[in-house]
Each structure stands twice: as structure tokens, then as C-alpha cells.
Predict the 3D structure of the following.
Amino acid sequence: MVQNTLFSRRGVILSAGACALAPIAAYADQPAETFISGVLTEANAFIGGNEQARLDGIARLVDKYVDMRRISRFALGQYARQITDAQRAEYEPLFRRYAKLVYQQALTTYSGQPLEVTGSIDRSARDIIVRSKVIAAAGSEFANLEVLWRVYRARDGAMSVIDAGANGIWLAIEQQSQFKSIIANNGGGTTGIDALIREIKAQLDR
Amino acid sequence: MSAAAIALLFAASSAANAQLYLPIGQLTGEIDPDMAATDIASAANATANGLAPDPWENLNRRFFGVHVFLDDNLLVPASRGYRVAVPKIGRRGLRKFLANARAPGIFINDILQGEFKRGGETAARFVINSVFGAGGFADPAAKLGIPQHSEDFGQTLAVWGVPSGPYTMFPVFGPGTVRSNFGNLGQIAMNPLIYVRTPSANIARNARAGMSALSAREPLIEPLEQIRGNSLDYYASFRSFYLQARKREIANGRTSFDDLPDITDFEDFDEFDEIGEEE
């Protein structure tokens, strides 16, 4: 069982070893920061607008910048290797609709605060975390809220968003927890994936 | 993807963690409901990303059902009543007062974790807010640049290297891990009021517990409704929220990205895409 490696003896030893081998463990990634700045600039243009503008805007940004297929596959966990072609053809469009709906519903009660990029850390050349901060007045519930963006760089250099997080919680990880649970509790494998597809459909029909 | 939506989702998720903490945390008033949350898990699935496993999922799900039933029928109605009866400024003041009352417990855990700078901040906040903040109803310390933070004995055990153990879910007491449950017991023991059994002390203790529960639950009514409405599996969603946030809380916000699960490792997926594009 993996426990708090930040504080475990093994974690300390590994960290020390890593530092000795690589004095600078992670680097800022300016192109990724520029990429997210562009996304936020587009978002900031509509988040202060009316509800319909926000709903349309978020759908547009998801289509444009989020690698939904990669996230949808990650959300399946180990079951991603078991999904059939027919299931995938049905699952991926459903996932895209479901994820959009989650974001859009969240927006309906959000008053709208702009964000700005504050830095980045590269986990690897192709996996970068870009930090952003909510620009909010002191005392606002969103003041000092840091929103993190996980950026994927494809082999051709094209970048996309593959996860977003705040307060230590990552969306894709939370979705994976739900999806894997549903699959596992419905027989696992392709049977469980069928159940997941039914659940997503039912949610979209509500 | 809208940054705004993400911000809300995560603000809401943070709130969810607080609700999950309602149990012991609020019965004793010792655990900060606003800052709560931290471990991880997913039954047969959750050791990735350092999150606690959930081998007792079947039992936990039953307890979760009872927990939600009690929440729906007791705490939420009471919280709505509290919202109607007390104006927003009063609710905010009470929340700050209760947070200030938790400072001694936070200070002890700061020190036990060797976080002497944060311990100094906690002590300074307690003195400033108690003296200049009307006993804690205001937070002048935050305006002076000393932000609030949270600690509890469960986090201290984590810092000391105690393994989290499996994820647990108890009605009323909410989510946790074996470690955090032991931590809560230790946290209760740190509350001096627990040892005073006079009638007035009993009233004070019970009043604090009740007001802590209402104060924490009231602002979360809508966010939790939204999370629940969006969830395909509310239990799994809550578990993930709790464990992810708890993990960050233990790390005192010093976010580590080293143990994030790989989302980028689908090299064959790239090839799949390329084949798809050719088609």
C-alpha cells in the first residue's frame, strides 16, 4: 500500500537520491504556459457574461482544447484494455457529452472570476502541470484558489488539456474512481463497461 | 474547458470534504470543516496515486447510505433553518469564531509535526483574533497576512509515517481512514473541555458541536447537491474527493505531482488516433 511518500522514509531517500542525480528536478515549460494562457484568455472573455454565453463558451473550449478521448480512456483505468471497438464507439461520444454537462452545470451557479497563469512544472517533456490563480478580491470564496491544468504534448508538439484540478482534487482521477467502481461492481470487463455505458446514458437522459 | 467551471467544481469538492468531516470533526468542533479532507482510495482500484484502498466497500456503501439518509433528513433541514434564522454576516462571524476556537488544537499538531513556523502563525492568529477580532468573530489576522490553516492529529500521524490503512465510512462520523479515525480519537483527547463534566461544560460542549455541524453544513447545501446530481456513483465520487483532498491537506498544501497517475502513457492511443485520421 502506498502511503504518503512525501513523509515516508523511503520517500525521503528517493527524493534525496533524485536531487543528487538531478539538481533541478522539474522545469518550467513556457510553451505550455502560453498555451494555457491562451485558453484562459478565451475563457475570461465569456465567464463574466450571461449564463447561455458561459454554457456555449465552455462547450466550445472543451471541443477545442481538451483531449476528451484520452481522458475517456484514462477514466476506464485497467478496463481501457478490455473495451471492445463497438463499446468504444458508443462510450467515447457519451463521455464527451457527460463531461461537458458536468462543466456546464457547474457554471450555472458560478459568478465568474478570471484566472491567470502563475507558472508550470514539467513531469516530463510531454506531461506538464500549469498553475493558474483566480483573480478575486480578498474575502471572496475563490480568493487564492489555485487551479491546475495538466497539459499533454503530443509527439508532433501539439498540446491539449488532459486534466484540471484544484484543492488537491483532479477531475479525471475523480471520474476514474467512479467509472472503475461502476465497472467493478457490475461484473468487470466488458459486462461492467456495458453497465457504465448504461449509467452514463441514464445520467444524460435525466 | 472553462476555468470557471473547474474552479467551481473544486470549490464544491472542497466543500464536500468538509461535509464528510462533519462527524467527529464537528461533534468535537476540533476539526476544521472548511479545510478538511485528505487520504485516498478506491476499492479494488485505489492504490494508484497513493490513495487508500477500500477493501470494506460493501459495508462502507451501506453505512454511506445511512449517513446520507441522516444528512438529508436531519442536518440539511436544520442547516436550512439556520440559514433562514441567522443572517449571512452572523453565519460568517460564527464560522470564524468556531475556527478560532480550534486554534489551540491546530497549534499542538503544528508543533507535533515540527511545523514551528506554522505553529507560530497559529498562535499569532489566535491571539490577534481573540483580542482584536471580538473573540474570534472577525479575522484581522488574515488581513495582516497570516492565513488560516488546518491540522489535526490524523495528519500528525501521517507525518509521523503511520500508514493510512483502508478507507472507512461510518454513519454520522463520515469518511476517513483507519489512521484518521485514530487521529480523531486523539484529537478529542486534546480538547480540555472533554474532561470537564459540569452541567455548564456539557452545555458548552454540546452547543459547540451543534453549531459546528450547522455552520459547516449550511454553505455546502447547494455544492453538495450539485456534486450528487452530477455523480454516476455518489459513493465513489465522495470517496475520491475525500481521499484526494485529504492527501493534500496532510502535505500542508505542498502539492506534489510525482505520484499522479499517468494519463499520457497511451502511446498506442496516439497510433490509434493516427490510424483513425488516415481512415
